[in-house]
Specification:
Elements (H helix, E strand, L loop, with lengths): L2 H12 L5 E8 L2 E11 L5 E2 L6 E2 L3 H16 L9 H4 L10 H5 L17 H9 L16 H14 L3 H10 L37 H6 L9 E2 L1 H12 L3 E2 L2 E2 L3 H7 L16 E4 L6 E7 L3 E6 L4 E7 L8 H24 L1
Antiparallel strand pairs: 1-2, 1-11, 2-3, 4-5, 6-7, 8-9, 9-10, 10-11
Helix pairs in contact: 1-11, 2-6, 2-7
Length: about 350
């Protein structure tokens, strides 16, 4: 469907940008899935398979946390401009709103001393005491803190662990039966991530250290999913919230997400999502990445999607160079797509 993009991805793999990948192109009713390379290269080599589970890292934010927040707003339980404190009084600051957290405009000062030595309860207490900086509402600064705090809010509203909220409100209604939190062995269909300092290779355990500690309370990462399930999620958006004749999200909700929702209206971020724009006609595109080497790009208007799942942190994390390669892949796809749309 996109031969130039596919060829570029293959070239990146040959240059060891990532050991392997599963990618999907969606155009209207047509879907093409490609599988390449290896799922694992250490301690043994295992070829990539289409149904393998990836630690999708921050895709958790849009698939789960953002989706539940959108459903709560539809139900009239929350509004974007109410303070987090009004809903979660344990959060000490009274000025940060849900909009700030969902658009990464809270300027929340996230430094926590000895963070990686804290247990889940200590980490929770630390997050609840964080304060905004001088750029509150003015500048987009991407942070995990927003969705971690929203995870605590969801636990308060639903009176259950946030991963159980995600299962109930997202995974089950969307029939994402291959998607899981806190995986249990065997891990034979799980794509591993990084090699830790002690030589252990993370496989089946969450890569993000904060989510690993928060475990069932993490709203920022921790989802393991595969292409089949993420395609179901993407197609829900492309179908304007409809899933098998069920209105899962309202059309007006999806339309709202296609607009800049930052306080200034100029931050190029929506509720949960990063906003990109088609080079052809400036159509809004919903975009999000995951640290482990994943991303999702949705064109709701033209009913297309590009989902990319790689294990780029296996076995070493070279983030700065990977981001350059990732952006080249995106640029190639958007350029190739523009030529398709012109025809």
């Amino acid at each position: 469907m996109y031969p130039e993009t596919f060829q570029l991805i293959e070239e990146k793999m040959q240059k060891a940008v990532f050991p392997g990948a599963v990618l999907s192109f969606v155009e209207n009713e047509e879907t093409e899935v490609q599988v390449m390379g290896n799922a694992q290269v250490e301690p043994t080599i295992i070829s990539m398979q289409e149904d393998y589970l990836f630690d999708v890292a921050s895709l958790t934010k849009v698939v789960c946390t953002t989706t539940v927040m959108l459903k709560l707003k539809e139900a009239g339980k929350v509004t974007w401009d109410q303070s987090l404190h009004s809903l979660l009084p344990e959060f000490q600051n009274e000025t940060i709103t849900l909009r700030h957290l969902l658009t990464h405009t809270s300027d929340i000062q996230t430094y926590i001393p000895n963070r990686d030595q804290l247990n889940a309860e200590e980490l929770r207490t630390s997050y609840l005491s964080l304060q905004p900086g001088e750029d509150l509402g003015k500048v987009v600064k991407y942070t995990d803190a927003g969705t971690i705090l929203l995870g605590f809010l969801l636990e308060k509203l639903y009176q259950k662990d946030v991963i159980d909220v995600f299962r109930q409100e997202v995974l089950q209604p969307l029939s994402m039966s291959n998607s899981h939190f806190l995986l249990q062995p065997p891990y034979d269909k799980v794509v591993p991530t990084e090699k830790l300092i002690d030589g252990t290779i993370l496989k089946g355990l969450t890569h993000d250290p904060k989510a690993r500690v928060l475990a069932e309370h993490a709203g920022n990462a921790g989802l393991f999913s595969n292409m089949k399930d993420l395609s179901k999620f993407a197609k829900m958006y492309l179908n304007l919230g409809v899933v098998s004749d069920m209105i899962y999200l309202q059309d007006k909700t999806i339309q709202e997400v296609l607009h800049d929702q930052t306080p200034t209206g100029k931050g190029e971020r929506s509720i949960g999502w990063d906003l990109k724009f088609s080079p052809l006609d400036h159509t809004p595109l919903l975009f999000h990445t995951g640290y482990t080497g994943t991303f999702m790009l949705l064109d709701v208007v033209k009913k297309s999607a590009f989902i990319f799942l790689s294990n780029r942190v296996h076995t070493e994390d070279h983030r700065a160079s990977y981001v350059v390669h990732r952006d080249e892949i995106l640029a190639c796809y958007l350029s190739e797509r523009m030529e398709r749309l012109k025809k």
